Amino acid sequence: MKIEEKKILIIEDDKFLLKAYEIKLRKESFNVIVAMNGNEGLELAKKEVPSIIILDLMLPKMNGFDFLKIIKNEKELKNIPVIAISVLGQRTDQEKAINLGAEKYLIKTDNTLEEIIVNIKKYL
Description:
The protein has about 120 residues and is of the alpha/beta class.
């Protein structure tokens, strides 16, 4: 599958970060879908069935942990890799996200946009 055929769903409530991810990933020729809250992200995941999901954990309407619980129990979505990104740096938060099914947990302040893209490519 070519890069432009790979759909990336980004669920992030920070408009600035969301736009930065979207611009950078489109420059890398990815097909990008965006959502600003967990409910919208879940609807788009079901509708679009992305190749990978980039998930902020601190979201309005449905947090990232609850989102993970739901999609990892959905037959059509459970095998989609999820990279959790958050400002939450506590080991307990990281372990919780991984135990709920995230492939990777990245702390926003510790990872550049380029490092996040490297991780996306690794899981595609």
